[in-house]
Predict the structure of TonB-dependent receptor plug domain-containing protein.
Amino acid sequence: MNKRNLISLVATILMPMFLFGQEAVTEEKVSTSIGGVVSDESDNPIVGANVIVEGTDLGSAADADGYYSIELGAGSHTLTASAIGYESQSSDVSVKEGSAGITNFVLSVSAVEMSALEVLASRADERTPVAYTTVDKEEMEFRLGSQDVPMALNMTPSVYATQQGGGAGDARINVRGFNQRNVAVMINGVPQNDMENGWVYWSNWDGVADAAQSIQMQRGLSAVNLATPSIGGTMNIITDPASYEKGGKVKQEVGDGSFLKTTVNYNSGMIGDKLALSGTIVRKTGDGV
């Protein structure tokens, strides 16, 4: 093979490769995207609003001007815009290959609904590693009569309660050998022990048993969240909630020494489907025998 034929053969082989490389270099990459502005009903941009393409991992967050941009493939897609405090909004879009579509969102303000709040006053349940006994309202009425609240717990383990002087408010309670100074007493989660010596004056709470829904005695170091003197135990008293139904009751108890206890309870029922009130008044009289 002479030199001229060799050059022609090499040129024939390299020419297609050169043309292909030339085409690859000159070919321009065309992108397909969707963008727009997320705003509220007052035409204010919603900074940080999320816009996602449903069924994919594609999405974007709105910038300081509420603008977002997402690169995606051609075809039909569903975009969803959302932000905290606003109702989510979806829009179906169709994007052509190599085009830049525009879809704006106007979100409406939405109130964030929170779950109901329930006050348990640091109560224990079967999952709490604490020894406890709960006395409900029916059992209190059966055991207590007209005595002070601690007497309702006299039949529970490791608890000793006494009326001492016998007058209203003279009750004392010991838990696991500790006196009242080392027993935390709470009413609806509010500590009632004296700040200086930890004592509880039941004369200040004469009649609270008539308004109590239940009492729980936690023995030993308990599950309370407050720094109360609970080395002996904790007594949690929960009062009756307001009743949805209107009504009331009157109860009288008599005893030695001209003792007379009158209890009046009244429930307003629902007022305008928004408020319900309940009240209990207790009066004790006697010769102090």
In short: The chain has three domains: 33-107, 131-239, 247-285. The two ends are 140 Å apart (CA to CA).
